[in-house]
Amino acid sequence: MDATLHSLLTGFSVALQLDNVWYAFLGCLVGTLVGVLPGIGPLSGISILLPVTYGLNATQAVIMLAGIYYGSQYGGSTTSILMRIPGEASSVMTCVDGHAMAKKGRAGAALCIAAIGSWIAGTFGVVVLTVVAPPLATLAVRFGPPEYTALLILGLIFLAYMSSSSLIRTLLMACLGLLLGMIGIDNMTGHFRYSFDLAELGDGIGIVPVAVGLFGLGEILSTPSTNVVGEVIQPRLRDLLPNRQEWRDAAFPIARGTVLGFIIGIIPGSAHVISSFLSYALEKRVSKHPEEFGKGAVAGVAGPESANNSASTGAFVPMLALGIPTSPITAVLIGALMLHGISVGPTLVNDHPDVFWGFVASMYVGNLMLLALNLPLVSVFVTVLRIPYAYLYPLIIMFCVIGVYEVNNSVVDVWIMLIMGVLGYWLRKFNFDPAPLVLGLVISPILEQSLRQSLIMSNGDYLIFFQRPISLGLLGVAAGLLVLAALALIRARADWRTRLAEAEAGEAEA
Amino acid sequence: MTLRADHVAGAAFIAFGVLVIALSGDLPMGELSMPGSGFMPKILAGFTIAFGIVLIVRAGESRPFAEIEWNDAVHAAAVTVITGIAVYFFEMLGFLTTMVAMMFVLLVAIERRPLHYAALYSFGVVGLTYLTFVYVLKTPLVTGPFGF
User: Fold this and answer.
1) How close is the nearest chain A Cα to the Cα of B60, in Å?
2) Structural domain contains residue B142
3) Full DSSP string of A111-123
4) Domain that holds residue B128
């Protein structure tokens, strides 16, 4: 524990350097704007702004990008409460009671509760991350190829099981992503695979064109500007503080949402989305007045907002400790660090303590910054919300093009982005969630290499995965999840995932 | 039988899986003790085909294909074509020219915005972005034959 505290202090000495504070501030500000604007989610925001970090060192880059990530979680609540349009998916539940509170003249209180809840949840998440990540990384150093293979397979199965769309759809998307990850030179044999004589494809398809295409451009193609209309409720600054009763109503939901969100955040999948839905369901269940939900219940804002922020931080645990992305956003962050020559994995904490601890400490600073930013600047964000979408989306397309081109100075990447945009549009039409595709793309090289290394190690014997206790345990959990999913299929009974999907669809339509 | 969304999606994934296998013809599978470069892609293509079949079998749960709304397809196609043209000329004409033209065309042709607003906005926003990237962020952007 002493060593952790000492390392954390070192991290603060890095995070509190003036330039790092500036990049944390910039990340939080841009992230909040990204969250506020409908049509750009955190993933597209991070992907589009990735090239801006090229001139920075790895620590500054990850501090800024993480700021964008958790800033967007904060910012998403603003549009939800003031316009009833979720700035991003995890804010869908906040729309319901947040906007109802706003219509009752309590917009300021709703925004304040969302901000305070997010701050408490974010800070709690960072504290747990500080304590949990280093020992987990120490354990993960003992992982060999079979353990990594089992862990990645478990991650994919978990993702499919937790997904609110169907298991088959998620697995199909993951397969597509894994296949896209096979494009380029095979690291173990040097064969060119599916590169069609294009030298640019030799290094494979990058995560940035795929993520920007699927989530940035795909979202724009699916959102005609005529469909983006909404009336913004202007909160009065003097009403920003909740009254005593509202504080009381918010306290326990914030606490429950925080813990629930963090636990779900560690699990692969769209954790921040799932956590907010589960938190809303939990609050409704434990409430003495469930009939108030949908009509401006404070708990309906406090719980989900705390949960999605806590989940965002929770997702950093497997990323920092194991080098495994549990969401497309952490996958892009891993990609960003790799662009700066930093290999993310169990050795990160020892090989690059300044990056690891600087990043962790910057999250404490960033959370405080967001609290200071979100409330006083709410009128500025409201002004941004008044920019017509017809003017906004051409700007976003321009940033998509610059963002993707600047990664490798390659126009082929921009074409890939365009193709992925069309694919993203098509996938949305057929109710496929593109997130597992991005995740599959990122883990594809690691999964293939670890699987092939395991088979070489065992001279082609698949039993190697069952002879080592850690991989056996991980595969056991994966098998258990598959059995649970199969049981639900056989009984044709709606389990909690189906109900979640229905709630998600219902709220999105409302 | 009603054609459903998952019939079409499943068929597309099966076709994709078959295409991957066809394109993997020259990639060696290797042996279990030394898997080749075609090992994983072919397994994954197999899974894609299998999941595609399951999707078709369970297509009854999905909505009819005819019910999918395509009223935004014209907008999506127009945006894609205009962006595609801009991408084609991006390296030839440079960032400033292509992006100003792309924004202007998007605003005028698709969004039916007044010409002077569209021109002012396109020049202003693209110019500001150019200055920010080149002079503030020190990130050079593609230049065209005119030097910008």
Assistant:
1) 13
2) no
3) HHHHHHHHHHHHH
4) 73-136
Structure tokens at A320: 């920092």
Q: What is the pLDDT of residue A337?
A: 82
State the smallest CA–CA distance between residue A508 and chain B in angstroms: 17
Q: Is B6 on the interface with A (CB under 8 A)?
A: yes
* Domain-located, residue B112: yes
> Is B100 within a domain?
yes
Residues of chain A with Cβ-Cβ distance to B139 below 8 Å are 51-52, 54-55, 406
Which tokens belong to A329?
């956003």
Domain count, chain B: 2
The long-range contacts involving A244-250, CB below 8 angstroms and separated by at least 24 positions, are A246/A106, A246/A109, A246/A113, A246/A298, A249/A297, A249/A298, A249/A299, A249/A302, A250/A113, A250/A116, A250/A117, A250/A298, A250/A299, A250/A301, A250/A302
Whether residue B123 sits in one domain with residue B81: yes
Distance CA A48, CA A25 (A): 18
| pLDDT, tens digit, 9 for 90 and up, residues A286-343 | 888 888 888 889 999 999 889 888 888 888 888 888 777 777 778 778 877 887 888 8
> Residues B55, B90: one domain?
no
Give the best residue of B79, B102, B122 to mutate against chain A (max A CB count within 10 A): B79
Cα distance between residue A138 and residue A127, in whole Å: 18
- Could you give the ipTM of this predicted complex? 0.94
Quick check: A182 and B41 CB within 8 A? yes
pTM above 0.90, yes or no: no
How many A/B residue pairs have CB atoms within 8 Å?
A: 155
- The span from the CA of A67 to the CA of A52, in Å, is 14
CB A320 within 8 A of CB A33: no
- Out of B67, B89, B105, pick the residue that ends a domain: B67
Is the domain of B79 the same as that of B34? no
Domain boundary residue among B14, B39, B67?
B67
Is B144 within the bounds of a domain? no
